[in-house]
């Protein structure tokens, strides 16, 4: 599976949307340099309140740009970084990846997929009805979380729009993504 980076973003403060950048620097074991979610332990405010010593499984947030097309068909207007992602991708089935898959971006960066992003109520403040569009029930009654995936940094470097992405799968059996 091969795809590409459409956009990159970061933000030093905890806001819903991030700021698009021409490039981002990714640091092994920490996340995006200059981003509020960078660190070895959790930085997401609700998780810090629960237990600030938890490992940070949410160092990098990725969303597939195809979601924006799906949402546009439902009347929403979403651009890269609007939903708080660090990396917007194209032609990678992010939601279909197993836990432990490695995303290789460019020549250096390796991100290990840890799980699904669980959309929070702030998404409703951003655009009314959006939570229901990215958190839906499947035919089996289970929740489908469409708002991207989370990863930790195994190998750092610089990421820019246009960089290629390849996927290395872990040894089977594949573990499905769960919310992190």
Question: How would you concisely characterize the structure shown here?
Answer:
The chain is mainly beta and 180 residues long.
pLDDT average, as an integer? 95
Low-confidence stretches: none
- How big a fraction of the residues is strand? 25-35%
CATH hierarchy: architecture = Beta Barrel
Spatial extent as radius of gyration: 15 Å
H/E series: EEEEHEHEEEHHEEEEE
Order of strands across the widest beta sheet? 1-6-5-11-8-7-13
Under CATH, the topology is which? M1 Pyruvate Kinase, Domain 3
Q: How is the main sheet built? A: 7 strands, mixed, barrel
Count of individual domains = 1
Specify the oligomeric state. single chain
Helix count from the secondary structure assignment: 4
Class based on secondary structure composition and strand pairing:
mainly beta
Range of helix content: 10-25%
């Amino acid at each position: 599976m091969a795809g590409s980076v459409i956009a990159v973003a970061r933000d030093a403060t905890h806001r819903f949307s991030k700021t698009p950048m021409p490039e981002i620097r990714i640091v092994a074991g920490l996340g995006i340099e200059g981003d509020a979610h960078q660190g070895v332990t959790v930085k997401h405010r609700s998780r810090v309140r629960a237990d600030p010593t938890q490992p940070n499984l949410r160092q990098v947030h990725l969303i597939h740009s195809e979601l924006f097309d799906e949402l546009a068909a439902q009347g929403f207007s979403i651009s890269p970084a609007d939903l708080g992602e660090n990396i917007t991708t194209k032609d990678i089935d992010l939601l279909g990846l197993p836990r432990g898959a490695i995303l290789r971006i460019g020549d250096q960066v390796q991100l290990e997929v840890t799980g699904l992003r669980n959309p929070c109520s702030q998404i409703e403040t951003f655009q009314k009805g959006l939570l229901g569009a990215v958190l839906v029930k499947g035919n089996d009654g289970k929740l489908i979380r469409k708002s991207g995936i989370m990863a930790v940094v195994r190998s750092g470097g610089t990421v820019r729009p246009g960089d290629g992405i390849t996927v290395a799968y872990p040894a089977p059996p594949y573990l499905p993504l769960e919310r992190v």
